[in-house]
Hints:
Blueprint: H1 4-16, H2 29-42, H3 46-54, E1 57-64, E2 69-75, E3 80-84, E4 90-95, E5 102-106, E6 109-114, E7 117-121, E8 128-132
Amino acid sequence: MLRAAPFVTLTVLLAACGQEPRKAPTDGDEVRERAIEAQTARRRTGAEVQDRALNRVIRTVYLCNNSERLSVDFDNPRQMATVRNSSGEAVDLFQERAASGIWYRASGYELRGKGVQATWTADGREPTECRAVD
């Protein structure tokens, strides 16, 4: 047992004289900041989600009862919507203040709705009911 004591002492002394321990890859300000940003990105508040929706263009496709397919780009920062029908014709509508839901209109065209339901009125045609599919 006495012979093991000098060996253990020598091992401890040699280990203490070695290089400084290197930082683990998970240490450091950069890694910590990336981790915090990733956690923050996952925990968006309702206000942040709403802000993102209000400050970008959102595309929605509607299928209507008259067999028309509408592709609508809601340009929230500009308070406009561009409606394209199945034949490629496009019209720009301006946002109106609605009690609830959406309301866009311009020169004989109108898109009103709430949730996935909408009513599309095109110049000179009867209004048709539509449903968002995307």
